[in-house]
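Progress note, sequence design subtask.
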């Protein structure tokens, strides 16, 4: 599956996606109906994910490293030491 699609490609995929959601919502099985409801509530986000591939993974990774560092250090004597350690680990 492609990660990045053009606007025209997304316009062609969205009706197929909405039809699939409608079919799931009308399915006889409660699990499929629930899946259809969930996908319907997230439809805007899912279609935006098809169109735009950027996310915050790198930022979240750095944030996690900083939190781990802070837990391991039990606090530094001053902020400058913490800042230097973050620069070393995240660069």
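Output:
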């Amino acid at each position: 599956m492609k990660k990045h699609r053009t606007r025209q490609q997304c316009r062609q995929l969205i009706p197929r996606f909405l039809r699939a959601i409608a079919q799931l919502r009308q399915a006889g099985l409660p699990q499929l109906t629930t899946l259809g409801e969930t996908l319907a509530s997230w439809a805007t986000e899912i279609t935006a994910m098809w169109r735009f591939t950027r996310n915050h993974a790198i930022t979240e990774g750095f944030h996690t490293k900083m939190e781990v560092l802070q837990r391991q250090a039990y606090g530094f004597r001053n902020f400058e030491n913490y800042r230097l350690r973050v620069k070393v680990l995240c660069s």
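The mean pLDDT is 80. Work on this subtask will continue into the next period as scheduled.
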